[in-house]
Structures are given as structure tokens and as C-alpha cells.
């Protein structure tokens, strides 16, 4: 349909678009139509002046705005009719009694001009097919012969005034081309505003879908930047480190608590032995059991007490084997830090293990 001339709507210049689409070319401009409207206004003023320039009717007429045009670009049916007279064309009201008496089938006409309120558009036959050349459409709309009468009746029902264009229209390229070929239209052209609104709705819908996709798959696809992925991996690593640190702190607190509880020395010793076996690669079976360690420490205490009695001295705390209570030098509620308590507990454990190893070697 590229050969068909079709002006799209600009401002309120629908009368200009209607005439140019009818004649299939840029025949009229707003300036030319304004000139015709001013000429009509002058003719009306002269008729009113015949009744006397001092009459109330004449003064009222001069104060009223023009009925043939306004600042928006609207032009009256009188302007359109006078513009068509230049080409020898005449407008007849479609539903007038005079025309209805003729009994002419609409498909035998050449063109129609339709008006509703302040909007004008053309329906014209080009070649052997009818087209709706409404300037509000994105392009010409094909109308079949069987649908033409129904289309005009629908317009009348909606309140349109329909005018039949009588006379020979100027020759045009589209009319000559469509005499030889026929057009097929698969989809009706959209209104100008309809296409813009649909594009906007599609963009909004696409944005919503992308947001939903990002929520469901935050790290999939190409939408994830390398920097964001790197930050995410770093956050996971830090999270794992925090969990490991929490586990280690829990183990340390438990070891300190066990070392500070005299009644649970054997359990702490077992824990120390297990950690040492894991740290130095030595199987736990090579070390003494907790019961053997307890007996060894008890024998060591008795030996120390015997030596002290022989010398007539009370065993000094510094000569005693380092136990959980005197190694820490304070009770659990003291002022020692956790690090000092841990160090004292480890020293006690290491000394106990060394003594046990020495005893084992002597055996």
C-alpha cells in the first residue's frame, strides 16, 4: 500500500488531511484553507451588513468568533466544500431525502467524506477496492465491498455525518496501479495512539518479567555482573570462616571449662590427647589412657609429699605438679583472660603428658 497517499494526523488539521487523502496528494495547506475560511467570513459579514451596520444583529455577529475556522486548525464543512469546488467536486449529504431517492448503491460511488464533531476523514475507492483513509490510523485500511454498506451504517449510528463526493477526482498513481492488482491486508492498521500505548505496555511488561526472573534466578544468565558474583563468593567464604571460628571458639571454651573443673580432669586429658594425636600424627593408642594418667599423677603427688615430709617442709605450690586449679592460679571467676587460662591449661596438659612419657620410658 505504499503507492496510496496517506497523511497522518498532526494537531487538529484533520480537514486538511481529509482533503489531501481524498485527492491523493498535497493539494491544500493550512494557509490556503485559512484563506478560504476568511473569504467565507467576509461574505457572511457583508450579508449581515445588508440589514444595517447599526443593527443589534450585526454588532453581535462582529463580536462572535469565526464559525469557519479556529486557532486549533479546525475548518468547517463550508471550507471543505469550497475547497473541493476548485476541482469541480460537490458534496451531497448521504442520508438526505434527495440522495436516498436516487437509490444508489454505495459501492457504485467513488468516495465519501465523514465527519463527527470536529474530525474529518475520507473513504475512497482506489482501483477496484475501497480504503478507509482516516488520518488517525497508521495506514490505509482495506474495506471489502460487502462490508462498505455496513461500515457506513455503523458510522451513521455513531453520530457521523456522511457526504458523498460527486465529480471526477484527479488522476493518481495509486488508482492506476490498483486497477491492475488487488491488495490483500492481513491485519488492520492500528490507531496512532494505540500503537504507542501498546509499545509502552510491552516495555512495562518486559521490565516486570525481568525483575521476576532476577528474583527467581539472582545469579543466572548474563544479567549477573562479574563483580557482583565475586562479591557473592567472597560473602560465602566469610560466612564459612565465621562458622568455623564459632566452632573453634566453642571448643576452646569447652577445653578451658574442663581444665578448670577438677572433677573432670580425665575428660580434659582425653580431649588433649585426641587433639595432640591429630596435630602430630601420632595415634591416640600410643598415649596413656585417662585412668593410667590419673594413677600416674596420684603416684607423683604421693612421691612429692614423701620427699617434703623427709625434708620437714611443706610442699611449695611451685614444686607441685601443675594441676588445673593451681596452673590457672585462680578460680573460674577470677580476672584471668580466656587466653591466659587457655595457655595455663595447655601448659598443665603438656607437663602431665611429659611426665607420663618419662614414666613410661622408665618402665
TrEMBL record:
Keyword Mitochondrion: no
Top EC group: hydrolase
Entries under InterPro entries matching the protein: Ataxin-3, Josephin, UIM_dom
Pfam families named among the record's database cross-references: Josephin, SUIM_assoc, UIM
Bias (Basic and acidic residues) ranges: 194-209
Main location: nucleus
Subcellular location field: Nucleus
Domain Josephin: 1-180
List of catalytic residues: 14 (nucleophile), 14, 119, 119 (proton acceptor), 134
Molecular function terms, GO-annotated: cysteine-type deubiquitinase activity
Keywords of this entry: Hydrolase, Nucleus, Protease, Repeat, Thiol protease, Transcription, Transcription regulation, Ubl conjugation pathway
SMART domains, A to Z: Josephin, UIM
EC number(s) recorded for this UniProt protein: 3.4.19.12
Catalysed reaction equations from the record: Thiol-dependent hydrolysis of ester, thioester, amide, peptide and isopeptide bonds formed by the C-terminal Gly of ubiquitin (a 76-residue protein attached to proteins as an intracellular targeting signal)
GO cellular component labels: nucleus
Protein name in the entry: ubiquitinyl hydrolase 1
Organism of provenance: Pelusios castaneus
Amino acid at each position: 500500500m505504499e503507492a496510496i497517499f496517506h497523511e497522518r494526523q498532526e494537531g487538529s488539521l484533520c480537514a486538511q488531511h481529509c482533503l489531501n487523502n481524498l485527492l491523493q496528494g498535497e493539494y491544500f495547506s493550512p494557509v490556503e484553507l485559512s484563506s478560504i475560511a476568511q473569504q467565507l467570513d467576509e461574505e457572511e459579514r457583508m450579508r449581515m451588513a445588508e440589514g444595517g451596520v447599526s443593527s443589534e444583529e450585526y454588532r453581535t455577529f462582529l463580536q462572535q468568533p469565526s464559525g469557519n475556522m479556529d486557532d486549533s486548525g479546525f475548518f468547517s464543512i463550508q471550507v471543505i466544500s469550497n475547497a473541493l469546488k476548485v476541482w469541480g467536486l460537490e458534496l451531497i449529504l448521504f442520508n438526505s431525502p434527495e440522495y436516498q431517492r436516487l437509490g444508489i448503491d454505495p459501492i457504485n460511488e467513488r468516495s465519501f467524506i465523514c465527519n463527527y464533531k470536529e474530525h474529518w476523514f475520507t473513504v475512497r475507492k482506489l482501483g477496484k477496492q475501497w480504503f478507509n483513509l482516516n488520518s488517525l490510523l497508521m495506514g490505509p485500511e482495506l474495506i471489502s465491498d460487502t462490508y462498505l454498506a455496513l461500515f457506513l451504517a455503523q458510522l451513521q449510528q455513531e453520530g457521523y455525518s456522511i457526504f458523498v463526493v460527486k465529480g471526477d477526482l484527479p488522476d493518481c498513481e495509486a488508482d492506476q496501479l490498483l486497477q491492475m492488482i488487488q491488495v490483500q491486508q492481513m491485519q488492520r492498521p492500528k490507531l496512532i495512539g494505540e500503537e504507542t500505548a501498546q509499545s509502552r505496555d510491552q516495555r512495562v511488561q518486559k521490565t516486570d518479567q525481568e525483575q521476576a526472573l532476577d528474583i527467581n534466578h539472582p545469579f543466572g544468565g548474563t544479567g549477573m555482573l562479574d563483580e557482583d558474583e565475586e562479591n557473592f563468593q567472597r560473602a560465602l567464604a566469610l560466612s564459612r570462616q565465621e562458622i568455623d571460628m564459632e566452632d573453634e571458639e566453642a571448643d576452646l571454651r569447652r577445653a578451658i571449662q574442663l581444665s578448670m573443673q577438677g572433677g573432670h580432669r580425665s575428660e580434659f586429658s582425653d580431649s588433649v590427647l585426641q587433639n595432640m594425636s591429630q596435630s602430630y600424627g601420632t595415634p591416640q593408642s600410643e598415649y596413656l589412657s585417662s585412668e593410667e594418667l590419673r594413677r600416674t599423677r596420684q603416684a607423683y603427688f604421693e612421691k612429692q609429699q614423701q620427699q617434703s615430709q623427709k625434708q620437714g617442709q611443706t610442699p611449695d605450690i611451685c614444686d607441685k605438679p601443675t594441676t588445673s586449679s593451681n596452673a590457672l592460679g585462680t578460680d573460674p571467676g577470677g580476672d584471668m583472660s580466656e587466653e591466659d587460662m587457655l595457655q595455663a591449661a595447655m601448659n598443665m596438659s603438656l607437663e602431665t603428658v611429659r611426665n607420663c612419657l618419662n614414666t613410661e620410658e622408665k618402665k
